[in-house]
From TrEMBL:
Chain spans, region Disordered: 1-42
The organism of origin for this protein: Coemansia erecta
Membrane topology annotation: Multi-pass membrane protein
Annotated protein name in UniProt: Cation efflux protein cytoplasmic domain-containing protein
Swiss-Prot/TrEMBL keywords: Membrane, Transmembrane, Transmembrane helix, Transport
Subcellular localization, as worded in the UniProt entry: Membrane
Cellular component GO terms held in the UniProt record: membrane
Pfam families, A to Z: Cation_efflux, ZT_dimer
A GO molecular function held by the record: monoatomic cation transmembrane transporter activity
Residue intervals of the Cation efflux protein cytoplasmic domain: 320-379
Compositional bias annotation for Low complexity: 23-37
UniProt entry tagged with the keyword Iron-sulfur: no
Residues covered by the Cation efflux protein transmembrane domain: 109-298
Length: 393
């Protein structure tokens, strides 16, 4: 058996008790559980297309979710092996459209954060509300982290003449920035907690939320709501997903902060510092969680099972001269993924042939979304210890 370190097995399973009908000669079948099928084509040598379930309506919600995920995985595998000029042109056009949408989301979100911070700063100073001061501090850090995110996207697209200083690119700029900002935000949250406790024990209470303050926060919430909807549609992209999470948190925090400030002004004074304390604790938890998540990616957490399965499939069907897929690894270096694939070929294969097979597989893998770098190792046997030994110290 070939060894498998952090490797994947392709699991494409039918629902127990459901018969999968083969559709041929262009005919259709609308019975429950029917699947679309084609004979093994040039880019579908394992005939995975026969496993696509075309009609999901008879199934329960849980099973519809299962088959939808499986259909998407199969389609991703088939698309990755379709090398026709039309398919390549379509992929490039789609990438250009998605890239433009993500840039609009990034710059639009940064502009929204600038507007929000300006309105929050005015509102916090004029109202003297601890709850609004807490949300203003969060808006400041959102602005800084958003600027770092836009910068990370910019240096990725336009590396410039000094790219030799960073041979693998600077995609990890975002992760490092998030960890730094999270540390600062946790420290700021502690200061806000201290101020809230001081407000609770103070004998003077002069916070006052006016109609102008409410109008400012309402405008900020409206802008954030629009940007949340736009970024949520692009959540499969890391940059847009981070901004969507940021907008959602801002909507919750600002609505809660404004409510507590109003209650502190018109009901009981101590509601406002309590609101500031709750907001500070929420901010601390949110940013600490984000820092831990980014740290895991920077350390080198394993890629998703679906990506490992897809990479295994690509290596299996890439070239008939590949006898075995020895090892498939994929691990994060920030948001992106590094891939290592070990394949086995006949020991009598000429060097130029094995080189071309390995290089073409590498190029194919590096075209996949989220893959920054791929390394393909070619061997003539798989019954030996792993080539790489992690350092123990």
């Amino acid at each position: 058996m070939p060894r498998s370190v952090n490797s994947a097995r392709i699991d494409i399973l039918p629902e127990p008790g459901i018969r999968h009908n083969t559709v041929s000669n262009g005919s259709s079948n609308s019975s429950p559980g029917s699947v679309m099928s084609t004979a093994g084509s040039a880019h579908d040598p394992l005939n995975l297309n026969s496993k696509i379930v075309s009609d999901l309506s008879p199934f329960s919600r849980k099973m519809r979710s299962f088959y939808k995920s499986q259909n998407e995985f199969i389609q991703a595998c088939l698309d990755s092996m379709n090398h026709s000029e039309a398919a390549e042109a379509a992929r490039q056009a789609q990438h250009a459209r998605e890239d433009l949408k993500v840039r609009i989301a990034s710059y639009g979100s940064l502009a929204a954060n600038v507007v929000l911070f300006g309105l929050q700063l005015y509102t916090a100073i004029s109202s003297k509300s601890l709850s609004l001061f807490a949300t203003m501090a969060d808006s400041l850090m959102d602005l800084l982290s958003g600027a770092a995110l836009v910068y990370a996207g910019w240096v990725t697209r336009y590396r410039g003449d000094k790219s030799y200083k960073y041979p693998a690119g600077r995609r990890r700029t975002l992760g490092v920035g998030v960890v730094v900002f999270s540390t600062l935000m946790v420290g700021l949250s502690i200061e806000l907690i201290i101020e809230s406790v001081r407000g609770l024990t103070s004998k003077t209470h002069n916070q006052k939320v006016t109609a102008a303050n409410i109008a400012c926060i309402s405008v900020a919430l409206g802008v954030k709501l629009v940007m949340l909807g736009y970024c949520w549609m692009l959540k499969k992209h890391p940059e847009a997903r981070v901004f969507a999470t940021d907008h959602l948190n801002d909507l919750i925090l600002n609505a809660f902060g404004l409510t507590m400030a109003l209650l502190g002004t018109h009901v009981k004074w101590f509601i406002d510092p309590i609101g500031g304390l709750i907001v500070a604790l929420f901010i601390m938890r949110s940013w600490a969680s984000m820092a831990i998540s980014q740290a895991r990616l920077l350390i080198g957490a394993s890629a998703s099972t679906q990506l490992l399965n897809q990479l295994t499939y690509m290596a299996m069907v890439h070239d008939p001269r590949i006898q075995f897929v020895d090892t498939v690894r994929a691990y994060h270096v920030g948001e992106d993924v590094y891939v290592e694939i070990d394949i086995v070929m006949d020991e009598n294969t000429p060097l130029y042939e094995s080189h071309d097979v390995g290089e073409s597989l590498q190029i194919l893998v590096e075209k996949q979304p989220g893959v920054q770098r791929a390394h393909v190792h070619i061997d003539f046997d798989f019954q030996h210890p792993p080539e790489h030994h992690p350092k123990s110290q």
